Automatic annotation (TrEMBL):
Pfam family, one: Polyketide_cyc2
Keyword NADP: no
Descriptive protein name: SRPBCC family protein
Keyword Signal: yes
Signal sequence annotation: 1-27
Keywords: Signal
Amino acid sequence: MTKLFRLLVAPLSAALLLTAFSTPARADTDPLLAAQWQIAWDTHRFYECLAAPLPTTGRKQVRRDVSIEINAPVEHVFDAYSDIDNHLGMHSFLKRVVTHADWHEPGTRYVNFTAVEEIPVAGLPVTSDTHAQQRVHRDDLYYETDTWTLPNVVTHQKIVFTDLGDGRTRVTEHLTFEASILLIDFTVTNGVSSHQATQAGLKAAIESGLL
């Protein structure tokens, strides 16, 4: 069963009352980020949030698809594209990635991580910690990533890789954004642009042989 985050509405001190995630984050580095990731996990399940929000909640969902074709074999594209560390430097927002846990279950690789981004707001950079879980299904050539960040912005991503033949691959990202009605337009605009920039950067790196 897909596991996702719950709404982060409890104060930080309440985290001591929460049950621990069955596979705790291993905080080898950045223990504060690891603790924040764990609190987000314990207090937020994305699968509850990804049901269409009621109008009375003041939240809204928007879905977008972005796609790109890459001149490289599908297995190579999948391995390079699904490695979150390869996304560093592909767009200006993402500054570093902190991995808290990385393990395998039958057919699926799980990665718990925090992406540290600097997002321009009114012309000024604002640091944002995006807590995420990635589930990689290599045999089926797709992966999913669910994320949560302040102020209660949720995304669900399903990235599908299609073999076009002749050593070409199409990558299609199915994106679902959820945020308050005041933030949804900003969230979608910046989210789509950052994904498109990352796609273009990964395409160039893969086709040039850098990845």
